[in-house]
């Protein structure tokens, strides 16, 4: 059955518009249509100038994060039927500058991601071996956090990032933890300064909304707060043995 | 990258949170309700017993820990709540909050040593 729903999109073209505005479209939809498909319908049939990001359409690429009726969600995983007969309001992810319409500028996050060295800093394998083996329990220590694929919904959810954009933020800190918690990694000492600074884990006040909106159940709030413990231990270790070489 | 000094306050805040969650409600219930209202034997908090408690080493430690850590926990929480509400208090008020808790701690130590 085809019904019609009203989709309001935030429109903003920074070079020509003085400020963002909402534009409404009447979109025919079926029960199996996502918000993303609604936007695609608008682009194909009603207004080719509407700009938004997408790729996989199946919640794995991380491109289609948007504010849907004020909540950070994935457009491809959210169904229009949920909102009918009401309206759907689609806006770009909060706390990020707008490139155009629903597309945000991710540069700030990408710089932070780079700063946490989100890759294995290879530990020397045990003598006589040429590889680092890992037991299933050792993998469990980080597996959950490795599922983060940078949707950035957590940054849109984080009030602290909204108040202070210098805060390293949930996803970057979670990925930092993902590598620190990996038994094959030797990069901890290089990453701890990011954790320890005021804008590292200490920018978090454990609101927890990041974990609520995460579509992959990564639980960034947990990763960040485990690192408050790590940072505290590191602090007192440094305090007691200021000259000790930081080991990984 | 500058190391934050938050770990000190966070450790006090965390210890206070743990302690207040574990013993806070029961302390309030026993000392504030159950004994005064006679639900528990009034003898439980007879002056001599409480005095003996405050004069023992473990008792002194317990009293100081409860007062000091609760204070640090509460002050830290209030300080962060202000920030969350969009009231960005500067270093001065931060020092005032933690200073208040520190003063409370010193007072508790001095008074407990005096009994
Ligand atoms: S389009 Fe790939 S996650 Fe939604």
Topology:
The complex is a heterodimer of chains A (248) and B (115).
Chain A: E1 3-11, E2 21-29, H1 35-46, E3 65-68, E4 71-74, E5 87-91, E6 98-100, E7 103-104, H2 107-115, H3 136-143, H4 153-157, H5 159-163, H6 170-180, H7 188-196, H8 209-213, H9 220-240
Parallel strand pairs in A: 1-5
Antiparallel strand pairs in A: 1-2, 3-4, 3-5, 6-7
Chain B: H1 6-34, H2 47-55, H3 57-84, H4 91-114
Helix pairs in contact in B: 1-3, 2-3, 3-4
The structure holds FE2/S2 (inorganic) cluster.
Give a short synopsis of this structure:
By secondary structure, chain A is α+β, with helices and mostly antiparallel strands. Chain A is built from 9 helices and 7 strands, in the order ββαβββββαααααααα. Helices cover 34% and strands 15% of the residues of chain A.
Q: Round the mean pLDDT of chain B to the nearest integer and report it.
A: 90
Distance between the termini of chain B: 47 Å
Q: How many strand segments of chain A?
A: 7
How far apart the termini of chain A lie comes to 60 Å
Give me the CATH architecture of chain B, please: Up-down Bundle
Q: At the first level of CATH, what is the class of the largest domain in chain A?
A: Mainly Alpha
Instruction: Report the structural category of chain A.
Output: alpha+beta
Q: If you consult CATH, what is the topology of the largest domain in chain A?
A: Fumarate Reductase Iron-sulfur Protein, Chain B, domain 2
Write down the Rg of chain A.
Answer: 21 Å
Question: Which regions of chain A are unreliable across 5 or more consecutive residues at pLDDT < 50?
Answer: none
Protein chain pair with the most extensive contact, residues per chain: A-B, 18 and 15 residues
